[in-house]
Amino acid sequence: MSIQNTFHLTKCIFCVMIFENNRNKHPLSPRHMMHQPIYPQERRQAILQLLQKHGRVMVGDLSKRFGVSEVTVRADLQALAREGKLIRTHGGAVLAAVHQQPTTEDLRLERRKRQHPHQKSVIGAAAASLVEKGDAIYLDASSTALAIAQHIKTRQLITVLTSSLAVAQELKDASGITVVLAGGILQRETASLIDVDGLAYFNKFNIQKGFFGAHGLSIPEGLTDISADVAAIKRTLVQRCRQVIAILDASKWGRVGLATFASIEEINMVITDYQAPADLVRQVREQGVEVILAEAAEPETFQNQTI
Predict the structure, then answer these.
(1) Under a CB-based contact definition with an 8 Å cutoff, are residues 267 and 246 in contact?
(2) Predicted local distance difference test score (pLDDT) of residue 112
(3) Residue, of 156 and 103, whose pLDDT is higher
(4) Considering the domain 3-99 in this protein, what is its CATH number?
(5) Domain locations in the chain as residue ranges
(6) What pLDDT digit, counting tens, does each position of 41-100 carry?
């Protein structure tokens, strides 16, 4: 064998040894593969999987995860939005309604309280700022309505009508608030009383403001819920409230539940957070509905923005 051939053979063996050594040091773990180049379709499928798991994604997080620019991520999100698979929000996206699979587990209050707690607290504070001395208000059994209850506990001369045991429990020591609880059959998942006939006692009250959470909000269907029984309760109260106020975080926009309880024409105001999809916000405003984008505020104060 010539010296030249021996040199090439030695070089090849050396390269193989380096490759094996690097492979052992850096196995193809998910973290290592994260920054490996992947095709756009693969990346978009991975984005949908993240949405299924978490409900929302942010451009900055996706850029770091996949090792691509934010411009590339926005292009991916826009492509998926055109396919109807997600809804663009400020700085990210939420899953489109058609790709969500709600179950009765979604009714459970404890589960709902753990979803987007910061946004719900901010929305609850914004809604609480609208409650005035002497008001009679309705709070439904949603976790966001429970957040409102937490922000009005020190108020005086307020009457709260509710079918929620959790809201009643939250306000039991609030001496300045009169709590009127609807009758009905206990629905354990929502910790509320469900029976339209049980609402008869509410007839003696003039309800200034009704605060309604929802499974989803869309232009054609309005406010919807995944439970027909819950929707029937809310539908009855919508007719009795002078002002119907929807309280929902950004993940609810564009979603559609089993039953509608308020059409878009019946809604006076929507209080949501800054992640709400701008296009849908604009469409709802064009229907004559006021939309408040709630933001965090300094202690003892609250700010919101309607434009």
Answers:
(1) yes
(2) 54
(3) 156
(4) 1.10.10.10
(5) 3-99, 104-305
(6) 889 989 988 888 777 788 999 999 999 999 999 899 888 877 777 777 767 887 765 445
Mean local confidence (pLDDT), 131-151: 95
Nearest to 126 by CA among 298, 292, 251, 300: 292
The fold of the 104-305 domain, in CATH, is Rossmann fold (3.40.50)
**Phi and psi for 187 in degrees, rounded to 5?**
-105, 105
Model pLDDT, residue 29 = 38
Per-residue pLDDT, 244: 98
- Closest C-alpha among 220, 218, 246 to residue 234: 246
Rounded distance between C-alpha atoms, residue 151 and residue 122, angstroms: 10
Domains 3-99 and 104-305 share a fold: no
Which tokens sit at 20?
């094996």
